[in-house]
Amino acid sequence: MAGNVAEWTRNAYDESYYYFGHDLSPDFQYDFDPDVDPVSLSRKVVRGGSWKDIGYYLQVSTRAYEYQDTATSYIGFRSIQTYPGRGRDDGPGASNVY
């Protein structure tokens, strides 16, 4: 994915993730506690390329990381929401008489 900014994900970053992660559920979360955990556990996965990256980082398969308390001009996020759609009773042929 390429765009104005690389995309910040909610997944925690671990160098060995591909050894213990699973294809069916690739989500890897870790709740960082600054009082107890080492700083290396506060890393989050960044994917895609930004305006400052070389071609290598434009590949979807490339993972990089950034610390979760860091702000930069080249990392953003994509907000998503569920599709509101239509209700099961709100369509052609539905009886809307109350």
Largest sheet: 4 strands, mixed
**Total count of helical runs of at least 4 residues:** 1
Class by helix and strand content?
mainly beta
Which residues form runs of ≥5 with pLDDT under 50?
none
Q: What is the rounded distance between the termini?
A: 48 Å
Strand content: 15-25%
Radius of gyration: 19 Å
What sequence of helices (H) and strands (E) makes up the elements? EHEEE
How many distinct beta strands? 4
> Looking across the biggest beta sheet, what order are the strands in?
3-2-1-4
* Oligomerization: single chain
Looking at the structure, what is the overall shape?
extended
Average pLDDT over all residues: 74
What does this structure look like?
- This protein has 98 residues and is mainly beta.
- It is 4% helix and 19% strand.
- It is built from 1 helix and 4 strands.
- The chain has one helix at residues 17-20, and strands spanning 6-12, 43-47, 63-67, 75-76.
- It has a 4-stranded mixed sheet, with no helix packed on it.
- It is extended and about 60 Å long.
Write a concise keyword list for the protein shown above.
single chain; 98 residues; 1 helix; 4 strands; extended
Task: Describe the protein's topology.
Elements: E1 6-12, H1 17-20, E2 43-47, E3 63-67, E4 75-76
Briefly characterize the structure.
This protein has 98 residues and is mainly beta.
